[in-house]
Amino acid sequence: MTTKTITVDYLARVEGETAIEVRVPGDPSKVVRLRIFEPPRFFEGFLVGRRYDEVGDIVARICGICPVSHMLTAIRALEKAMGVEPSEQTILLRRIAALSQVAASHLVHLYMLAMPDYMGFDGAAEMLPFFPDRMQRLVRMRKVFNDLTAVVAGGRALHPIGTVVGGFTRLPVRGELLAIRERLLQIRADARETVKMVADFETPTLKGDREYVALQSADSYAINQGRLTSNKGLDASEDDYYNCFEEQQVDYAMAKKVTVRRRGGLVVGALARLNLKYNALFPSVRDLARTVGFRLPDENPFHNNLAQSLEVVQAIEECVEMLGRIELRQEEPRVTVRPGEGKAVTEAPRGLLHHWYVINRKGVVEKANIITPTAHNFVNIESDLHRLVLSMADQPLDAIRKACEMLVRAYDPCFSCSVH
Amino acid sequence: MERPRIGIFKYSCCAGCQFQLIYFQEHLLETFGAVDIVYGRMETSAGSEEGPFDVVLIEGAITESKQADQLKAVRGRSKYLVPIGSCAVNGGIPAIKNLTPELEVEQRVYSRIEPIHSVRAHPADEYVRVDAYLRGCPVGETDLIELVTALLLGTRPRMIDYCVCVECKRRGNTCILVAEGAPCMGPVTNAGCGALCPSNHRSCYACWGPMPGANAPALARKFEAMGMPPDEIVRRFTEFGCPTLEFRKGAELYE
Lengths: 420, 255
What we know:
The structure holds two protein chains of two kinds.
Chain A: E1 4-8, E2 19-24, E3 32-35, H1 43-46, H2 52-60, H3 67-82, H4 88-119, H5 124-127, H6 132-154, E4 163-164, E5 167-168, H7 174-186, H8 188-199, E6 213-216, E7 227-230, E8 235-236, H9 241-244, E9 245-248, E10 257-260, H10 270-277, H11 283-291, H12 304-325, E11 340-348, E12 351-359, E13 365-371, H13 373-391, H14 397-410, H15 415-418
Antiparallel strand pairs in A: 1-2, 2-3, 4-5, 6-7, 7-8, 9-10, 11-12, 12-13
Chain B: E1 5-10, H1 16-24, H2 28-34, E2 36-39, E3 53-59, E4 62-64, H3 65-75, E5 78-84, H4 86-90, H5 102-109, E6 118-122, H6 141-153, H7 164-171, H8 176-180, H9 216-225, H10 230-236, H11 245-251
Parallel strand pairs in B: 1-2, 1-3, 3-5
Antiparallel strand pairs in B: 4-6
Helix pairs in contact in B: 9-11
């Protein structure tokens, strides 16, 4: 059989710019490349020389879909560096902000980026005349989550302005939060409908042994803080991040590749989280997962979409619960600048996100490193592409190309983040 | 104009302005109903960058020569070309790197710099003629709706071109610069956000970039008189839009 190369020059409906190159039929000595050609953005380079109170606003601009994750991860790393202890209230509000953004991000991926694949359309706008009800459902849900992010994180959902080192510049009013709680209850049905819609997508099957990595904590479905854990026995503090993982530059991509030390590729994101901390989900969410046929462990990367839809339901239930019991007391961010070093790891919508800073006695950044979910998934996306090609050896090139695109998309990668 | 044919080109940025356009903004379904996005790789796998287009929206700063080449080619295929968001309008956050020698910035991030072909970050109008500026970080909804409406009606869009102070006054805010001595960039920053930061107990940090003709040196001297150290004044004028003439004039007094 002759060898052909499938190339997707500029993958559509993902965040940022990448090409895919896969040689078929697959071979262990293969070329399988996620050629992330988006030009490097040098955030870690130009953060040097900026003061701690600018960092959150700057790193928000790494990503237009998960700015809150970058802000919260940077802020927590800086707080550790300066010995700032956020209040219980701040920790709770940050959890609400993060969950609202996780849900909003999953929804844009499910409806606008992924769904057209499964419905036979080029994009969401093309679907609008045929499935107006689905697009209206998206708009209804999105609005509630965006408003929640804006009310808590400050001013606007995209690059919010109230989230700073030490806490928030302005606290929400209890009435605002209760009003959004009511609206969350109204979109419960929409979110469950979304899970059923996604469960009906016909996905290829791609089994395989992978290392799933996610944060876990004893008392909750860990999002903003937790221990680094995996299904292969990893269990470490975020401060040991670099003892567990290493990142390496490759010549054909502007993103760096992350591996688990002495083991190799890893998977992060919604599916990894569900596989590792399914029992931390609300019972009602676990019931729904069972109803739509989700079984542990789920090793099909295409099911990341289903995992995302279940996390949207979980986010609603959690936010409803937290907003119902929150009592706000007036407090202001208090920060004493002092030199130090801090690392933080959080769960961004797409998975593990790490920020590390060294700051001097004036609070100015001297060193910075940022590792994004897509860099964590990079090695595994390529090995899954190879698995996929091997499993489709007898099929026409066009079908293989389409499946490769769908696979990369199912990971919900963010290439703009990855070349930060 | 009947259903304008729109092309969206993304350069170095967070893609938030595209998300604002296709996801976050209030009039999402109406926008989809009124225009045809015939090229936009984040929206659709259909279409080609060959156009022709009625309007091309440019997102992101130009940081590689091949981006500049494509930008120039695209200009020739479109009736109108509009940079959207701070990165494309004034350099935005990506242009912070221009303050440090390029090689040094690159070496801080990559151990091997051979595969890297980056240049200084510049706004779109450094390379091509542009027809309007859609400002904001992310782009403002008022301006966005004005632009789409003007296109449909065939009129000239009237974009917001005054400073944040005007919006603060309209909201009845007490001036935090005068009353509290807060280092607010409102007097030199283009409005459109609705005075978001001053209304939420913090100083404007100029994310929309300078208002045209802003008097940055006057504000920089005010900051000095308030006791702000020189390096801090420079940072205030270089976080967003440092390649602009307006903000350069504020920063260079204290560099």
